[in-house]
Amino acid sequence: MGKRARETPVRAANVSDFILREWLLFAALLGVAATSLYLGRLPSFSASQLQVLALLWVLFVVIHGLRAGGGISWLARVLEGGKLLPLKLVLGTFFLSALVTNDVALVLIVPLTLSLNIEKKDILVILEALAANAGSALTPFGNPQNLLIYWYYRLDPGTFMAAILPFSGAFLFLLAAGALAVKAGKRKGEPGPFPAVERSAWLYGIMLVWVDLVILRLLPPVAAAPVLLYPLLADRRALEVDYLLLATFFFFFGAADNLRVIFASDLAYTGHTFLLSSLSSQVMSNVPSALLFSRFTHHWKALLWGVNVGGFGSLMASFANLIACRLYLVREGRENGSWFTLKFVGLGYVMFFAGMGLYWAMGWFR
């Protein structure tokens, strides 16, 4: 009897710890359930959304294989020897996100940062998440909402980039200054020898380039499928990725679809496109916000700024925020997860209101 009594509190504690650790998953699941009951319908998932989930899974497998093979640890040790490390990480995230999307940039940079033998990794991860949102805004293919606006309004690349360049340029300056202010000194203890790099790590490096070509649409989506053959046949450890994060994305897509239907059924035309799209992004993410408001306005500049400024702030505002926060909490946030989340959201809202102020100052608000 005593043994069972002791086991029950332990199991209850484990369950509560799991719920607290995976609160984003449960929040997304609850959102799907509540909105589905309200609408009397299940959410629909587009082919592009399922494609994104599949590509994320392949990317996670490749990154995990690269890490298990020692590739990321080796690269981290190389970076440790240089100067201005915080600046290099933040600028690298900024420009990489403009080329391979903000989600992919964070999946690459955040694990690398967490492998470094340095202090203040929490601040660096937050700055990297902000840099990914700011950098990805610069190009039509930097994030999904940009791609939607670019195609929907039939814009040319020059016009598109000229409209958003002040946003990305201003935040590049702010983030670079913030990175220079971070004194990420090395942790105590002498570093050991350079980690051994397995042959598989080189193979996963080639796979990573291949998957990036798929993400850039230089190769068709089906071209990512052969990448899974090696992990399935010869390296099952690479398949041990964060499936709960993928499940969070799945339910988040579903909740966003239901929210889109709810708002679309009641929302009338408004000239306050920037304000509404940026604020709605805090709840339903900037991608569905772009999809929703593109149906009600011809002010594409206001919408472009609104959904990209709206990527700052809450964890739900951007998938990039979810990825960066999740990657940190799984690796480093067992003891100070709540404090990290508070800092993440706090700095995010500083940038959010700075972006709103910049837009107003430029006189584009109508």
Biggest sheet descriptor: none
Order of helices and strands: HHHHHHHHHHHHHHHHH
Beta-strand level of the residues, as a percent range? Answer: under 5%
Indicate the low-confidence ranges by residue numbers: 266-271
Shape: globular
How far do the termini sit from each other? 70 Å
This entry's quaternary arrangement is single chain
Number of helices: 17
Structural class: mainly alpha
* Fraction of helical residues: over 70%
Radius of gyration: 21 Å
In round numbers, the mean pLDDT is: 81
**What is the tally of beta strands?**
0
Overview of this protein structure:
With 366 residues, the chain is mainly alpha-helical. The model is unreliable at 266-271 (pLDDT under 50). The longest helix has 25 residues, at 157-181. Helix 2 runs parallel beside helix 12 and helix 13 (273-284) crosses helix 14 (286-293). It has 17 helices and no strands. 72% of the residues lie in helices and 0% in strands.
Give a quick summary of the entry:
The protein has 366 residues and is mainly α. Helices cover 72% and strands 0% of the residues. The protein has helices at 2-21, 23-39, 47-68, 71-80, 85-100, 102-114, 121-136, 144-152, 157-181, 199-215, 229-234, 243-266, 273-284, 286-293, 300-309, 319-332, 337-361.
Topology:
Layout: H1 2-21, H2 23-39, H3 47-68, H4 71-80, H5 85-100, H6 102-114, H7 121-136, H8 144-152, H9 157-181, H10 199-215, H11 229-234, H12 243-266, H13 273-284, H14 286-293, H15 300-309, H16 319-332, H17 337-361
